[in-house]
Amino acid sequence: MWRCTNCGEKILDDNIKICPCCGEEYHREPLVEKTMKILDDENEKNEKNVKEKERVIEAIVKLNADFNGFTGSGTGFVIEGDYIVTNAHVVTQSAKNQKVVVAKNILASFDKSIRKDVIQLRLLDYNAAEDVAILKAINFDDYTYRLKLGDSLKVKRADKVFTIGCPLDFDFSYLEGVISSPSRKDSTFNEVIQTNLPINHGNSGGPLCNEQCEVIGITTFTKKALNLDTEVLNGESRTPLPIFKTIEGMSFCVTSEAIKQLLNKVNMRGKENVF
């Protein structure tokens, strides 16, 4: 069996000299060889993708933010330009008087199997409404890997995604899942991406990556519900007790577009838009 390289028609009879489809004398190409080449190219692409995924952890940092003696923690990631991105709520807090308190000291540490550096960061800017913060290291630029920003506008339902974060102080845990919805409206944020990734305390600020290892969002929050409508017997009384219902498999991520907007704001202070 051969394929006509002029029009792509499959030729079953090796003795035919003229392609019955286009009428041209064709240059024959074995289908088996072409199939093997396609498979080889696909395998090479998959191997490259696996190696890229293995390197993502080099761009992930565990963040510790000091708020006058109280320490908050979360995840961050290094992107091109040597910026570190995380959630605003990881490095800022709302005080009782409605004012935002910025962490006094912000430290970032890598997975110890990768490197043992602990670096100090300064907050360049943040957007509390979108829950995005941009930081920069003080006297450090020796990063081995930087993540690229993807386009969250191209995200589709059922796309495969993954993240690496530090949930509940379990350092640098790999999690994968799918996009449940590329766009959700939320009362807190303008627009978020819904996934089935389990997001717990410490995951906040981690990258939501697509299969090409591009950042399409930031892991931000999950949902829990409180149902007071169900009556529960308390001894002999009929006093309603609150029923906590944990909503599983519904987590939400800030979009990469929100990251780009804040990065443009940071960069516009000294030069043209670069994102």
Notes on the structure:
With 275 residues, the protein is α+β, with helices and mostly antiparallel strands. It has helices at residues 31-56, 88-91, 256-267, and strands at 2-4, 10-11, 28-30, 60-67, 70-79, 83-86, 92-94, 100-102, 105-109, 118-127, 132-137, 148-149, 160-165, 173-184, 192-195, 207-209, 214-227, 243-255. Strands 12, 13, 14, 15, 16, 17 and 18 form a seven-stranded mixed sheet that branches. Strands 4-5-6-11-10-9 form a six-stranded antiparallel barrel. Strands 2-1-3 form a three-stranded antiparallel sheet. It is built from three helices and 18 strands. The protein is elongated and about 85 Å long. A hairpin with an 8-residue loop joins strand 9 and strand 10 (118-127). The protein folds into three domains: 1-38, no CATH class; 58-137, Trypsin-like serine proteases (Thrombin, subunit H); 148-267, Beta Barrel (Thrombin, subunit H), CATH 2.40.10.
